[in-house]
Structure formats: structure tokens, C-alpha cells
Design a protein that fits this description.
By secondary structure, the protein is an alpha/beta fold. It has helices at about 45-50, 55-70, 95-100, 120-130, 145-155, 160-170, 190-205, 230-245, and strands at about 25-30, 30-35, 50-55, 75, 110-115, 135-140, 175-185, 210-215. It contains eight helices and eight strands.
């Protein structure tokens, strides 16, 4: 007889659960769960709870076991990996975790996502620059190029600070590939706001961009905001953005 124990409202992290890998040579490794950012359009903090970091010893042990099983590429996963380790009894930065994982024999390539632009540290940039295993790729969600909209989205960075971050990353790693997420048609978005987004896309020159038409998530602040953008207007802007991204 199978017995299932359902937990409610727990902040515990359960280790050593069985997993089913799709590929023999690569896999994802969760390093943390939850989110504290509360972007106004996002439901994740409400359904996944606050940020909880796994102990580095457990992560290292898992990666070593994967390497022993033939895995050569890992993707470290978290809603915002930059926040990793801040809530541990013995705090550790994400950059420090990366340096420890790089020491593991058998692991040849290290990837991670996602890094929030508001707190991507110079320490992380330096670790990536000096690494022989961390892939030269960063997924850096923009969401909007309008500082006005970014404030309403509760993203906690500006167009200018985002572009400054990109410049620092590219100065350290000229060959890096940058990808992003962009929302079109967020409540209150004007043509001027949209053109600010287009301007950032031109200046950064993303390798690729995941572009989305804004859709309401019940329970989020954005879902009840006034000035919802008409569907036809959002679609027309989306098509223009997609054309630019694909150039």
C-alpha cells in the first residue's frame, strides 16, 4: 500500500528525492525554492512561498553523485539565483557556491538561471570571467525598457542601471551571450514606454528573447490595475518587437 504524506505551509526542503533524468549527460539541480521579489505581475511568491536555499553541502553532494553517474553539464536553478544562500545559518553567496561546484571532477559545463538584474553582483561577473567551466551565457530578464513601468512592475532597477550592468558584463566577457524575457502590453504601457523597450533591445543585441503578451494572473496587483492595454494594440507592439528581436 502506498502512503502519501501531504505537507501544508512548510518551509522545509526535502532532500534525496528520486528523480528521472531526460538526458544522461546533463540535468538541472535546484539550489533554492520560492521567491521574495513580488513583481506585480507574477504569482510565483504566492504559490511557492518565500526564498529557501538548500545547504551547499547537499548541493555539492548531489552534483558529485551526478558526475559519478556520467553527467557532465548541470543547470543550477532558482527563481533568482543571486539570492542564494542569504537565508542560511551560515550565509554563502551564489558566486562562492559556483566556485565550489567548479572544483568537482567530471563536471565540464555549468549553467544557471535566473539572475535578477537588480542584484547581479560584480563578484558573480568576476567568477564567471575567470571560470573554465561556467558557460558564457546569462539570461537577464528585462521585462520592460521603461523605467516608469519597471517601477510599477516592482522590478527595482531602471533602464539606465540595466544598461550599465550589461556594459559591465560585456566589458568582463566580450564573448558572452545574453538572452532575456520581455512583457508587452503591461497595464498602462504607452507607445513611449514600448519604444523605450525597443531601444534597449537595439542597444543590447540579445542572442534571443522570450517575448510575452501580458496576461492577468489572478491574485497579483497587476491584474486589478487600471489602463489595461487593448489586445489589438498589444498584439501590434508584440509583432514589432518580435521582428526587431529576429533581425
Amino acid at each position: 500500500r502506498v502512503v502519501i504524506d501531504l505537507w501544508k505551509d512548510t518551509d522545509m526542503i526535502v532532500e534525496d528525492l528520486p528523480s528521472d533524468r531526460k538526458f544522461s549527460f546533463k540535468t538541472g539541480v535546484n539550489i533554492m525554492y520560492g521567491c521574495n521579489n513580488f513583481c506585480s505581475y507574477c504569482i510565483v511568491p504566492y504559490v511557492r512561498g518565500r526564498e529557501r536555499s538548500r545547504n551547499p553541502e547537499d548541493i555539492i553532494a548531489e552534483v558529485k553523485a551526478l558526475a559519478a553517474d556520467g553527467v557532465v553539464e548541470i543547470m543550477l536553478l532558482g527563481q533568482n539565483v543571486n539570492s542564494y544562500g542569504k537565508n542560511l545559518t551560515n550565509p554563502i553567496s551564489f558566486a562562492q557556491l559556483l566556485k565550489e561546484i567548479e572544483k568537482i571532477d567530471g563536471i565540464e559545463r555549468i549553467r544557471f538561471m535566473t539572475s535578477h538584474p537588480k542584484d547581479l553582483s560584480q563578484e558573480l561577473i568576476d567568477v564567471m570571467k575567470d571560470s573554465t567551466k561556467i558557460c558564457r551565457h546569462l539570461h537577464l530578464p528585462l521585462q520592460s525598457g521603461s523605467t516608469r513601468l519597471l517601477k510599477i512592475m516592482n522590478r527595482r532597477y531602471t533602464k539606465e542601471s540595466y544598461l550599465d550592468l550589461v556594459e559591465r558584463i560585456r566589458t568582463a566577457m566580450p564573448d558572452i551571450s545574453l538572452t532575456t524575457d520581455i512583457i508587452v502590453g503591461f497595464p498602462g504601457e504607452t507607445e513611449e514606454d514600448f519604444l523605450e523597450t525597443m531601444d534597449v533591445v537595439r542597444k543590447v543585441g540579445y542572442e534571443s528573447a522570450f517575448t510575452f503578451l501580458y496576461s492577468k494572473r489572478t491574485g497579483t496587483p497587476a491584474a486589478t490595475m487600471e489602463n489595461q492595454v487593448e489586445e489589438a494594440v498589444a498584439k501590434e507592439r508584440f509583432d514589432r518587437l518580435l521582428k526587431l528581436v529576429q533581425e
